[in-house]
Amino acid sequence: MHSLDNQRILVIGGSSGIGLAIAAATADAGASVTIASRNEEKLTAVATKLSGAVNIAVLDAGDNELLERFFEAQMNWDHVVVSAAQTRVGSVRTLGLTDAKAAMESKFWGAYRVARVAHINGGGSLTLVSGFLSERPSATAVLQGAINAALEALARGLALELAPVRVNAVSPGMIDTPMWDDLPSEKRTEVFETTAEQLPVRKIGRPEDIANAVLFLMTTAYATGSTVRVDGGGVIA
User: Fold this and answer.
1) 8-178+207-229 belongs to which homologous superfamily?
2) Quick one: pLDDT at residue 81?
3) Which one of 5, 61, 63, 125 is CB 3.0 to 4.6 Å from 110, fit for a cystine?
4) Nearest residue to 29 (alpha-carbon basis) of 11, 49, 3
């Protein structure tokens, strides 16, 4: 098991889904973890269920002034993860421009704003969560592919600019998270089963699968400028 004893870790988007799994895994590895999102009530409820030393911070990656104040008031972090994003899915010709701009604002510019102001110790890491559509585009989610590709390019450039801080991306495939809860149960099951049949691993991913990849990047001092794909073989299927 990877050890993160006495390291300070910030997970933005850590109150649910992939972010929560990352927070749980790093806390189990001995880190002092802070989970951040916009919903204080949800953060408080989640923090009580995690092991180890878990703190909360109310942050909005869309609020640059709030981010600046937060990072200026904090000691340097050892690792920062950005997994928070809200994006609507649709084809270019059906997705309204307002929703399209909001998606880019949330997922790409949110990560960009954090990267600008986060104070991270040399040898520490910044990890961004992208998605496999960056490499295997979908006709019904063109914008998501473009945003994910932009995030991965951002990580590579930041690995040079922020060195010796290490910057990487993790690219998930279809993961069973609360993001799918809006679908009726039968429809969600149908989507998962159909997708699983098409993947080499024959199953849908879990948030813990992505957390494992993030821990690898945090604890591997020779990894920077990398994108680690965890998609069940989605890109090659």
Assistant:
1) NAD(P)-binding Rossmann-like Domain (3.40.50.720)
2) 98
3) 61
4) 3
